[in-house]
Design brief:
469 residues; eight-stranded mixed β-sheet; binds zinc ion
Length: 469
């Protein structure tokens, strides 16, 4: 959480002491079936009473537990959610084509080889997304441990013929886990390129989590033209600490790494769209989106099954309580966020966007944890313009209010078309415990917390559909 966001939340907490302010007065409207207060009350009660978001997430994860971009599982997820949207009576339910790169994981092992100083030790590893595999017999090499690209550079020729082990823990002193993640992500994304430039034969990267356990966390890595394409794997934090300790005792120990992963070429996939059509200005759109693809070690419950469910449940709630939005509220389940963001770019550039105007787009891709706020970009002037929405969110008690923030990979291309970008901001303290690992499963998502996220987005979208921007 940024300092600015934290300060805003503190202010909101302070302000909510006087939450008796009349929302109707803030909007200058009379009470009626579609007054903001009444709409909020209906959506909140219905959502909390039924708690359907979690059941929807369960159904998605059962229908498609593995949703790696371009895989049969991703197609099964599209089919399932399309049937869900049609069953709920959404309008304009359709798919839009996206070209994606397919990558497959194979068997993967790493061991510290036995030496005069100790027996063979298994390391918990997983291939990073996009990595080439090793030869079937694997590769064995000495390990060079570094904490940064600068240290790698300073090691000069020491990396030649070695496995470079990037072992920099995420910084616990950073308050916002997303920032701590961002500070280390370059090691995962570009580690193989930087190590290959110095003659390394493979890389091991400490998993991007503050939790200490034996679950490796995958995620995207990239190659560049030029340096050889060397295999790249993540190593669990506990194993990274163990390997580091062994290296201090036994410099020159070797690790044998076997990765069976491979690229499987490009294939066609889709984004999935469904909406509640606006009664007065259907060409003006308020978008709520998540991404349907997911990493394959868990079942992508938080990342980003939760975001897809937030979008669909938000629309369902608005419809279920009998509200008719004046502008179109659209759920978009994007494909391929994890593997390059082609879904977001395809959506923004699709011929279907002709004649449409996106007023605002809200992305939910920070998990299904307790929502703290709804974020919106554009600076203080935009926040001021949405004071009424902020007051409604606050007085409803669903979240602490509207703050600066939000956005995301899938909706970013819509900024060029003038859309305000925002998003759901849940409590992030535990997000990276699960992120991209075998721990990202249904049991890690709390039904009421998930539902509150959908309710917050439903209120936000309904109010903007009613009042414009
Ligand atoms: Zn995600």
């Amino acid at each position: 959480m940024s300092l600015r966001l934290r300060r805003a939340l503190l202010l909101l907490v302070a302000a909510s002491g006087g939450a008796a302010l009349s929302i109707a007065a803030a909007f200058g409207v009379r009470f009626g079936p579609e007054s903001p207060d009444e709409a909020a009350r209906r959506i909140l009660e219905r959502g909390l009473h039924e708690e359907k978001a979690h059941a929807l997430l369960r159904s998605l994860l059962e229908a498609a537990p593995m949703r790696l971009t371009g895989s049969p599982g991703a197609e099964a997820a599209l089919a399932h959610m399309e049937a869900v949207m049609r069953g709920l009576g959404f309008a304009n339910v359709h798919r839009e084509a996206v070209r994606v790169e397919r990558w497959e994981r194979g068997a993967e092992t790493a061991v510290i080889e036995a030496s005069a100083f100790g027996p063979e030790i298994d390391l918990a590893v997983c291939a990073l997304g996009g990595s080439v595999g090793t030869a079937p017999e694997g590769l064995a090499a000495e390990v060079l441990e570094v904490r940064s690209f600068r240290e790698l550079e300073a090691a000069a020729d020491a990396a030649r013929g070695k496995i470079v082990f990037f072992n920099r823990p995420m910084d616990r002193a950073v308050l916002d886990p997303f920032r701590a993640y961002g500070e280390n992500a370059e090691l995962r994304v570009r580690g193989a390129v930087e190590a290959a430039k110095r003659g390394a034969v493979a890389v091991l990267v400490r998993s991007l989590t503050m939790r200490r356990d034996r679950h490796p966390h995958t995620g995207l890595m990239r190659y560049e033209d030029g340096p050889p394409r060397i295999p790249a794997a993540a190593v669990a934090t506990e194993d990274a600490d163990g390997l580091s300790a062994r290296l201090r005792e036994t410099p020159g120990l070797t690790v044998r790494l076997k990765l069976g992963c491979r690229s499987a070429g490009s294939v066609w996939s889709s984004n999935l769209i469904g909406e509640l059509r606006g009664s007065e200005r259907p060409g003006e759109i308020i978008l709520i989106g998540g991404h349907l693809d997911a990493w394959d070690l868990g079942s992508g419950a938080h990342d980003d099954g939760a975001g897809c469910v937030h979008a669909v449940e938000a629309l369902r709630l608005i419809k279920a309580v009998g509200l008719v939005p004046k502008r179109t509220i659209r759920a978009v389940l994007f494909m391929d966020e994890e593997f390059g963001g082609t879904g977001g770019r395809s959506y923004a550039g699709a011929p279907e966007r002709e004649g449409e105007r996106h007023l605002a787009a809200f992305e939910s891709d920070r998990g299904g944890f307790l929502p703290l706020a709804v974020g919106i970009g554009g600076g203080p002037e935009v926040l001021r313009r949405f004071e009424g929405l902020g007051a409604l969110l606050r007085s409803s008690g669903v979240v602490l209010g509207l703050v600066a923030g939000g956005g995301g990979v899938d909706i970013a291309p819509l900024a060029e078309q003038g859309a305000l970008l925002g998003g759901l901001i849940p409590d992030a303290a535990r997000y990276f415990d699960h992120h991209h690992s075998a721990l990202d499963v249904l049991e890690a998502v709390h039904p009421r917390e998930l539902e509150l996220g959908a309710i917050a987005l439903a209120l936000t979208a309904f109010l903007i559909a009613r009042d414009g921007i």
